[in-house]
Design brief:
Blueprint: H1 8-33, H2 38-62, H3 66-94, H4 101-119, E1 127-132, E2 140-143, H5 147-172, H6 181-202, H7 214-250, H8 253-259, E3 272-285, H9 287-293, H10 296-316, E4 320-325, E5 328-334, H11 338-357, E6 369-386, E7 389-395, H12 397-412, E8 416-419, H13 420-424, E9 434-441, E10 449-454, H14 460-482, H15 485-498, H16 503-518, E11 526-529
Parallel strand pairs: 6-8, 9-11
Antiparallel strand pairs: 1-2, 3-5, 3-6, 4-5, 6-7, 8-10, 9-10
Helix pairs in contact: 1-2, 1-7, 2-3, 2-7, 3-4, 3-5, 4-5, 5-6, 6-7, 10-11, 14-15, 15-16
């Protein structure tokens, strides 16, 4: 095998050369996948310089000819001189800092010394004739009265400096200590001890270990730098996940998939994407009166508990909370079944409110009343604001109409309204209790919009009565659309006799009676106009 054909002085360096070639190739392959990851680039430079160090050492150790010895020694010494540059790049990359004056000075000295090793002539730099190695019998090496000790001292000093700097950083870490600094410091002390050992031995001082050990400590440095990169990459990934989790608390993931498809740094002001969604608007009624009965801390605790419960429901129905606006919540549902999930979510929210209000520990004057409105249609998902302060939002008529339908629940005295467009998107066996209330006019819409009450969460007695009047009310609305006002009024009055306390029936009956009495024609089929409310 090849190592057995090598002189003893080249066996260790040959293994170091082979190991660093493998590590450099693996690092280069990984670098193609993560080419923006700075510590990996610095690690590759270290492997590259170490490869040339051991290559030159191996060539020099073969002792083939004076010219090959000189060439190998030049390569070896130049690579040693460049190692401190790779360390300072590595340190800057781990700290995520730009190269400062210290890094520039070390890099500049490394390059200057490496150039001197490659092209310097004469006994003060590198030159012939060869001289016997002081402690290695049978090994010749070029003369170098100044350059060789200067490079060795420079490397040892920089190595010691970064070892001490790592210790200081670990001691000064006020929060969690960076785990990746530990293997970096251990690797530095390994190389420092190996370099000091070989330097002392080369000076003729007796040491317990007779052979040179810098090659093995260099391999250990490679191992520990690799561990440092792995730990740093792991901590960076964890930090990114934590940052993304925090970011998603403020920006819905559905938005991020569109406005940050290439990562968070790709977000730009004015980015927009059109999408067909179902919008759910939920608002707490009587919030001002509720705030007057509670202390600020009690009010915040109540609202946050309410929002927390609703957030679970929205997540369960695979919706997205666009934003909290005071006591209002705006939710977005995407997909072909968005209408079904949105209506289910609205009913679930009413269930949550009911459970909160029936809690025996909650005072009766702290009962929560809400209104929910749903509409489906196209919206614009995008970023608005300024380059220094941006916000993600959803815009469009669909959003406005969902909010207007939620506002209509208040004068109608009901809890949940959906538009005809939402109802048309539901499957035939949706299982919800619906009651058509006809077309209404709302702010922000030039055309009337058909509204439907969802009364799944009403008390059982009220649900039973609404089930009775629903077909009568639907027939009356059809009469109204056909222009048969008297027949429509008759149906409304018949339904009102069954459910006299029902506010929508009362409003519809009063509106058609006023139209018949005053002789004002009813425009289309609109009896209820909420544009001025």
């Amino acid at each position: 095998m090849l190592p057995y054909s090598l002189p003893h002085y080249s066996v260790g360096p040959f293994f170091g050369f082979a190991a660093n070639v493998i590590m450099a190739i693996l690092c280069l392959v990984t670098l193609t996948l993560y080419h923006h990851y700075r510590p990996l680039r610095s690690l590759f430079s270290f492997y590259l310089f170490s490869t040339f160090l051991f290559l030159g050492w191996t060539i020099y150790g073969l002792q083939k000819s004076p010219e090959s010895i000189l060439l190998g020694y030049r390569i070896d010494l130049a690579a040693v001189a460049l190692l401190p540059a790779s360390w300072t790049w590595f340190d800057s990359a781990l700290s995520d800092e730009k190269m400062g004056w210290r890094s520039r000075i070390i890099t500049g000295l490394s390059v200057l010394l490496a150039a001197s090793a490659l092209w310097g002539q004469g006994v003060w730099f590198l030159g012939l004739p060869l001289l016997p190695h002081e402690i290695e019998a049978g090994i010749l090496r070029p003369q170098s009265k100044l350059l060789r000790p200067l490079i060795h001292f420079f490397c040892l000093f920089v190595c010691f400096f970064y070892f001490m700097l790592t210790i200081v950083r670990l001691r000064l870490s006020k929060t969690q200590r960076p785990a990746y600094l530990v293997p970096f410091g251990i690797g530095m002390i390994f190389w420092l001890l190996g370099g000091l050992h070989d330097a002392i031995r080369s000076a003729g001082i007796s040491v317990p270990i007779k052979g040179q050990i810098l090659w093995i400590t260099s391999l250990w440095l490679s191992v520990f730098l690799s561990i440092a990169v792995a730990l740093h990459f792991r901590s960076l990934n964890q930090a990114i996940r934590e940052s993304r989790d925090v970011f998603e608390r403020f920006v819905p993931p559905a938005y991020l998939r569109r406005i940050a498809s290439q990562g968070l740094k790709s977000i730009r002001l004015g980015q927009a994407d059109q999408q067909w969604v179902t919008v759910l608007s939920c608002d707490v009624r009587g919030f001002t009166a509720l705030s007057e009965r509670l202390t600020p801390s009690e009010l915040i605790a109540l609202i946050n508990h309410f929002f927390e419960r609703i957030t679970r429901v929205v997540d369960w129905r695979r919706g997205v909370i666009d934003k909290f606006l005071g006591d209002m919540i705006l939710c977005i549902f995407e997909g072909k079944d968005s209408a079904q999930r949105a209506v289910d979510c609205g009913v679930d929210i009413l269930t949550v409110v009911k459970s909160l209000n029936t809690n025996p520990t909650r005072p009766s004057d702290q009962a929560i009343r809400i209104g929910i409105g749903l509409h489906t249609g196209p919206v614009i998902l995008g970023t608005i604001g300024s380059p220094k302060r941006m916000d993600s939002t959803v815009l469009g008529l669909t959003v406005n109409l969902a909010k207007r339908l939620e506002e209509v629940t208040r004068p109608l005295g009901i809890e949940m309204i959906i538009s005809d467009q939402v109802a048309n998107q539901l499957p035939s066996g949706h299982g919800h209790r619906f009651r058509k209330l006809g077309d209404v006019s709302v702010k922000g819409s030039s055309a009337p919009i058909g509204i439907i009450e969802v009364y799944d969460q009403d008390p059982p007695e009220l649900r039973h009565l609404k089930d009775q009047v629903e077909p009568i009310l639907s027939e009356g609305i059809e009469f109204l659309k056909a222009g048969h006002l008297d027949s429509a009024l008759s149906n409304f009055q018949k339904a009102q006799a069954v459910l006299p306390q029902d506010l929508p029936l009362s409003l519809l009956t009063t509106s058609i009676q006023n139209a018949l009495r005053d002789g004002h024609p009813i425009k289309g089929s609109v009896l209820l106009d909420f544009r001025s409310k």
